[in-house]
Amino acid sequence: MSQPNDIASACASSPLYVVIDLGSNSFHMLIARLLADSVQIVDKVKRKVRLASGLDAQNNLDAAAMARGLECLSFFAERLQDIPSQNIRVVATATLRIANNADEFLAQAEHILSTEVNLLTGEKEAELIYLGVAHTNCSAQKRLIFDIGGASTEIIAGAGFTAAQVCSLNMGCVTFNHVYFADQQLTENHFNHAIHQAKQLIKPWLADFAEIGWQSVLGGSGTMQALGEILLAQSQPAIIELSFLQQLKTRLIACQTIDNINITGLNLERKPVFASGLAILIALFESFSINQLQLSSGAIREGLLYEMLPNMRDLAIRERTLNSLITRFHVDKPHAYRVLQQVTMLCKQLQQQAALAHDNSIELLKASCLVHEVGLLLEYKYHRQHSAYILQQADLPGFDQSDRQLLVALVKSYKGDIDVGLLTQQSATSYSQACLLLVILRLAVILCRRRTDDILPSLSLSVLSNTVSLTLANDWLMHHPLIADELTQERDYWQALNLTLLLIH
Question: Where are the beta strands (DSSP E) in 222-348?
Answer without folding.
Answer: 239-241, 292-295
